[in-house]
Amino acid sequence: MKSTVHSILIALIILFFTSCNTNNNVACTTVYVSVVVTVHGGVLDKYFTIQNSTGDTIRYKTTSGKSDSLYGVLSDDYIHKFKHEVETFTFKGFVQDSLVINEQYLIKADQCHIYYLSGKTDIKL
Q: Which residues, including other chains, have CB under 8 Å from residue 30's CB and lie 6 or more apart?
């Protein structure tokens, strides 16, 4: 009888603690996702991305100094700003203070990563 009571008590304690767990932990991969644009025919002097819904400006460092350069539009670093949503971002690129690129990108996010949906990833100046 005593062992039955202990078993029921242990089962109730386990049930209590597992049912109170409201944290839905998700195992995310360690892959770091970025949306980039390749610009051919010149190097941008300045560039940034704007989250259209908030007006937030996002800046990244250039990954290449060549004439065909890669520029970051958005990365997983920004996921906390629009987790579980689809957002429109505008990439703006400048040469000698003149706007030469003004492209919109549709990007969604889950709890782990961003996902490219649409927008030019290859641009010729």
A: none
CA–CA separation, 12 and 6 (whole Å): 10
Q: Which ranges of the chain would DSSP assign to H, the alpha helix? A: 2-19
How many structural domains is the chain composed of? Answer: 1
Is the distance from CB of 49 to CB of 58 less than 8 angstroms?
A: yes
d(CA 42, CA 44): 7
Say what the alpha-carbon torsion angle 29, 32, 37, 42 is, to the nearest 10 degrees: -160
CB atoms within 10 A of CB 76: 16
Q: How many CB atoms lie within 10 A of CB 4?
A: 8
pLDDT, tens digit, for every residue of 55-100? 999 998 765 555 568 999 999 999 989 989 999 999 999 999 999 9
- Cα–Cα dist 51/88, whole Å: 6
**Domain interval for residue 85:** 31-124
The whole-angstrom separation of Cα 65 and Cα 26 is 38
Whether 4 is covered by a domain: the verdict is: no
Half-sphere exposure of 100 (CA within 13 A, CB side): 18
